[in-house]
Amino acid sequence: MSNNTASSSAGANGSADSAAPRRNSKRPKYSRFTQQELPACKPILTPRWVISAFMLVSIIFVPIGIASLFASRDVVEIVDRSETACIPAQNRSDKVGYIQSSADKTCNRTLRVTKRMKQPIYVYYQLDNFYQNHQRCVKSRSDEQLRSRSGENETSSCEPEDVINGTAIVPCGLIAWSLFNDTYSFSHNNQQLQVNKKGISWKSDRDHKFGKDVFPKNFQNGSLKGGAILNTSIPLSDQEDLIVWMRTAALPTFRKLYGKIEQDLLPNDEILVTLENNYNTYSFNGKKKLVLSTTSWLGGKNDFLGIAYLIVGGLCFFLAMCFTVVYLVKPRRLGDPSYLSWNRTPGGR
Amino acid sequence: MTRGRIRARLRRSHFHPFSCMRPRTEDGKGPHPIEGPGYSRVVHCNQPRMHRRKPLKYCSNYISTTKYNIVTFLPKALFEQFRRVANIYFLLAAILSLTPVAPFSAVSMIFPLAFVVGISMAKEALEDWRRFIQDMKVNTRKASVHVADGFGYKTWEKIQVGDVVRVEKDQFFPADLLLLSSSYEDGICYVETMNLDGETNLKPKRALEVTLPLDEDEAFKNFTGTIKCEDPNPSLYTFIGNLEYNHQVYPLDPSQILLRDSKLRNTTFVYGVVIFTGFDSKVMQNSTKSPSKRSRIERKMDKIIYILFSLLLVISLISSIGFAVKIKFQMPDWWYMQPSKPENLYDPNSPVKSGLAHLITALILYGYLIPISLYVSIEVVKVCQAKFIDEDLKMYDEETGNTAEARTSNLNEELGQVDTILSDKTGTLTCNQMDFLKCSIAGTAYGVRSSEVELAAAKQMAMDLEEQDVEISNGSSLKNHARNSWENSSGAPEIELETVITSADEKDQKTAIKGFSFEDNRLMDGNWLKEPNTEVILLFFRILAVCQSAVPELNEDTGIFTYEAESPDEGAFLVAAREFGFEFCKRTQSSVIIREKFARPGQLVEREFKILSLLEFTSKRKRMSVIVRDEDGQILLLCKGADSIIFDRLSKKGRMYEETTAKHLNEYGEAGLRTLALAYKKLDESEYNTWNNEFMKAKTSVVADRDGMLERVADMMERELILVGATAVEDKLQKGVPQCIDKLAQAGLKIWVLTGDKMETAINIGYACSLLRQGMKQICITVTNSDATSQDSKQAVKDNILHQITNASHMIKLEKDPLAAFALIIDGKTLTFALEDDMKHQFLALAVECASVICCRVSPKQKALVTRLVKEGTGRTTLAIGDGANDVGMIQEADIGVGISGVEGMQAVMASDFSISQFQFLERLLVVHGHWCYKRIAQMICYFFYKNIAFGLTLFYFEAFAAFSGQSVYDDWYMLLFNVVLTSLPVISLGVFEQDVSSEVCLQFPALYQQGPKNLFFDWYRILGWMGNGLYSSLVIFFLNLVILFDQPFRAEGQTADMSAVGTTIFSCIVCAVNCQIALTMSHFTWIQHVFVWGSIASWFLFLLLYGMVSPIYSGNAYQILVEALGPAPIYWCSIILVTVACNLPYMTHISFQRCIHPMDHHIIQEIKYYRKDVEDQTMWRRERSKARQETKIGFSVRVDAKIRQLKGKLHKKHSTLVTQSYASSPS
């Protein structure tokens, strides 16, 4: 693209410059900036530029799309929906009552591996219709309190789960209070599959947001029980389930990392899941799913990115073709003065 | 007179039989009956103390044009600010943000509002301060006022009603005064009312006879008197009052009143009593409050804001209803929110209350739809644009050292949309300087210099010829033939053209004599003696020197006489006579003495002409005569006057030169010169005596119609004249005026001239500026019967005018010739009727049909009314340009007021929105700056709405996924920065630096200007397009990201995206997409734009990086988000690229398609420039340039075209006769 400096204007200006500066106190100083004559690049969308830009985009996008589709296809995912299945048939008419009762809620599920899954295999729980992103939830926490012991009494934002009998709840607030409390254990061929629950949260969260000297206190001691109970002897920085949970999800349907299985699984392996079905999703008709998934460089199984790339890339290719056709069929010589409005309207002279 | 005071010994009244004649008997008129409402003012002369208390306490002479004072500034300026709807909204939002319903912190709402309002108010304050300073300059002017014993200086503001003031020559009158006496014995003084009505000729004022003795300082010791008169009113030309003096009552009329802001001329001093001070004075009564103007675009912007408000309201309602529904029906099931312990806002038992509270939250949350920063950005951009206008060297006037100045920056873009220009004449189009340029004596034309119009036209013609050369050389042989004969036939004009151009070059070398640019060796330096008709030439010069009413003044340094003339053309005649060797050097009571240089070789001869009578010039008579007795005792009547008048009065043998002179007059008129014909006649002693008796009788009669009688008697004398010749005076146009008018007309602007001057003058200037030309049909609308006092005759007059208007409209409608042009000329008196409600629309309809409109003898108020009529009647943008105080009304009334910061007072400039030092800069101001500013602001506003819709709607979409709880997916900081940092600078750089085409191209292709008045860049189609684009972008940005980051892990390490990750990704996409969008919008990238656009994207990532590094207390979940979570995830970058491209795809396709299939003018020109076709194919470039003019019927180019057409027509005839001849001869 051309760097077109306005040189001719400087010449036109010459006469004014050479005139004797009689009273030049008010005379503006010449600079290219103030005279709006800065050198400028003035790109214009010539057909060549348009076509090559669209082609370039499609050339870049299509391979990315294909690559991400492949990546997504590589991911093996096992989803098991369990919220109804884990309620004994006789209790299904009153799920909420069952889940709130003190009965044993252990439930066994069997998963079949369809494709070879390379370790690490990530274990997620997925909740549905759960508004963790509701403002009342999101605001109901105290980062100061989580971070260090000195901020223990900073509970003003945690209402109604802030204090109990005048002492602060640690961790306070509704999110912590509603901590997910289903547990899973896996076995394969009667062998326990180790679930690694370390390192499932962000390192920065463990190091900087959840204090090593902060221990749970008064947690779930109120009349109303929420979710999980925390081990009061473990500092918050090591309570990774809590840390993961406290990262509020953006949407009412979300998955959260439960742990990692650091062992390959082979096709047709049967995995027995022993599930403690504690968490009440029944009162709001939420689904509960257990997900085992491998990841690719792009993350989980999600064809959408690849498809979107392909669509946009294809669209660009199509547009490039269209413009090429237009350019070939109805070429307009660039800078053809006959297209100027005064040459096109019959009224013009 | 022993005081040694210099006193002009001349009884001036002798020369003014009409206006200043005093009836012999004093009881011609009785005192006015002063009583009743409207006539309550009592002034005790020389007793200002009487006016310190009520009821006679009148307002002081202090004037203030400021909008605010210290006390009122805050409330008034705040009120002004909150007249903007958006500001009210933001104020409410700020107040509500103090309550718990707010989704954001209060500071983030209050700070931007305070900033916006603060900046705007500071600007207001600064502008008002400037006005205050200007007022103070006026208020602190010194005037000589009578105090206890003698005269002392007081500032103007201290002058009180009843004070006796002494005003010296060339000073302004500090208030409206009653003239008591002047340095002339008969109490005459001359006043220039330039600032009031724009008229430059001097007006005589006359004191009452009884007050004449009060002509020295001592006389006022014991002077008292009482004036009873009308209350303050804006009528400049009327005054009714009585003076009670020495127990007698004398009537007062306007001729004794000296108005504030007019100037004393040709009179050493006057004494006067202050009647009206300050705001009571007529000139101030005429002034209107300076309105705060808003540009068309801004008004439209308000409408868009209303649309956005509705949108805001709709989505807020949806949100709050959704919220209420969720609260009512679902919240009880959400045990994790402990619905049993509800806070106020989340109470499932009272969903309506929660819903209403949430409505407020939503209104604040979605406030991003209404761009608060838009106002700030626009203010910033406009200030920068104004700075560019101020700094433009091509609008800098070396002569006066003035730059153009954008005094209010509100209207920059309005400059690009002007449709009609209403221009003052004197001082704006003309410099009010007359130059004697040509003359025709005894049927011979003298004077080789060309008028500016001719010069300009000649250049144009030369250019056109060149073009034709090119075209014709490609043409057929027939055309060649035509061209040859063309050359043959137009050989003479071409030679003329050459002389025209060469003489223009010489012009600079000669030392210019003011008022004289005549050049012809045949007449100069006594060479005229060698010409034939020496006698006539001699007579011609004598008429120039004698037939006048000026006073000579000897400049003692140079020994050259200068002349104090009533009108500048008279001055030009005297200077011309002096240069020809007939120096008018002395005027006595009854004679004029001329020093003749060439009467006898090498000797100066003083000749005395006894003035017997002087029949002065009036606009009705259009002529002036003197009857003189020369040294031989011969009585001569010397007459000069409008050619039509003189030609009617020629005797049979006086018509010798009539034909040739008429031809010359025609040529002069065509060249835009003011012409007068000169004639004389010889009188017998007895003939004169009989006439004089009758004349004296008429002079001293006490009949009501004395003036009419005088005129009739004078008319009897001015008959049977012998034509001598004609003069052509150039009313010197300001530099570059014809060219500028030509260009403006080509840019499609209509130009109206509103002048306080006489009709003839106005028409002459019309010719000079090419607003009128030969062959144009002039429609003059005038009232014949001037006094319309009774209701009946008023109706008759109105009917008459209406009849004229309808007739003219009819004529225009019936006109078939597309090239026919009409000019409407209307005078002030007619205008008063034409502007009345029942007629103004017909008048306007007629005026719009005419190519040029000239209104003459209009008062300042009428100027404003006409401006209002055009503004409101046509609905188009009007621009008023003027230089004097009389233009203030129209400058304020018009959409844009432009003041000429010339030599005259500053009133016009003070009232204006833009000031330039010369009319010719108007072209650049409109065509370059206006065009740019319009496009910049239009694009900027469109983009602003786009980006805020694109951003604001994502907030709404998220709500739908967050149970409408008012939670935003973005960090508060992101939202705060979005408008302030991340997207503000690129859009400001768009508004400040964007140039679709360079300034030269703007000037070369005036048609490009029409993009503004046609409003191609801010029509609803475009605005809605941009809004649609915003909607599309918001959908793409939000939903693509949502699906990509839905529930799956977004990294190889298996983490899923939480709210901060999703929010940050979406926000990154928004920042990239809108900044890429603006890059696509721009067509002009200097390094500044590059830095701002790409820098904005970079600064977002930089911010994210830095924000992630500060302690998590502040950054919350955004802590280390880029470094730890998003940066290493390829999906983050992939989605940014995908979304950015997807967002810009439709716009990119649109502009590519538009350029490809329906290119606009600037696209083509950009391409031509890009491929340097203008350099390679200069013919094409020139041809297009000449085509890029709007079809116009005024301007000298058209005049040239008309001329060429005429010549071609002749040629064609000649050619066809040639052909027939050849056919006829060939058979033989």
Automatic annotation (TrEMBL), chain B:
Chain coiled-coil ranges: none
Membrane topology: Multi-pass membrane protein
Catalysed conversion reaction: ATP + H2O + phospholipidSide 1 = ADP + phosphate + phospholipidSide 2
Family named by the database record: Belongs to the cation transport ATPase (P-type) (TC 3.A.3) family. Type IV subfamily.
Residue ranges of the TM segments: 85-103, 304-325, 356-378, 944-967, 973-993, 1023-1046, 1061-1080, 1092-1110, 1130-1147
The protein, known as: Phospholipid-transporting ATPase
Stored InterPro entries: ATPase_P-typ_cyto_dom_N, ATPase_P-typ_P_site, ATPase_P-typ_TM_dom_sf, ATPase_P-typ_transduc_dom_A_sf, HAD-like_sf, HAD_sf, P-type_ATPase_IV, P-type_ATPase_N
Residue span(s) of domain P-type ATPase C-terminal: 909-1159
EC primary class: translocase
Enzyme Commission code(s) on record: 7.6.2.1
Organism classification: Eukaryota, Viridiplantae, Streptophyta, Embryophyta, Tracheophyta
UniProt keyword Translocase, yes or no: yes
Source organism per UniProt: Hevea brasiliensis (Para rubber tree)
Domain P-type ATPase N-terminal: 43-110
